[in-house]
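Continuing the batch. This is chain 6 of the set; chains 1 through 5 are on the previous pages. Same settings as before, nothing changed between runs. Recording input and output for traceability.
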Amino acid sequence: MTALPRRRKAVRRAEILAAAREVFLAQPYEQASIQQIAERAGCVVGTIYGYFEHKRDLYDAVLTAFYDDLIADIEPRFAVIEGTADRLRFLVARHLQITVDDASWLKVLAREAHVDEGYFGSKLHALNRRYAQFLTRTLADGVARGELRADLDLPLARDLIFGGM
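Output for chain 6:
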């Protein structure tokens, strides 16, 4: 049996990820099945296991794709914004835009972060930290430039801003 060309494998993987995203956004992880994902992707269950070791591996890949796309959108625009106030406005507006564009993600992320006892140290925790670095860096730069109070508790400020949104 000949292996599929590289391009076809990448396309099939993307199709599986898109189907998994739809299923995971529609229902909790525990209720979602590989069978549902396979049906939506137009393949058999075995095909999915050829790309992902288990359902959690597929779920983590969906979360990673979400954060990768989000960070790829933010990074270039963030890099050209000067000043703490403008960066904060941008980050708050972009974070709130997620609620408009993809409100289902908020449910997925909240459910995963609050239900899973193994959240700290998990893939989602690492992805959240990567995303939060934009805000943490903005706050730290603001303190360094004297635009924010020197005694600002950075982790608390970050949590208050994200938690308040």
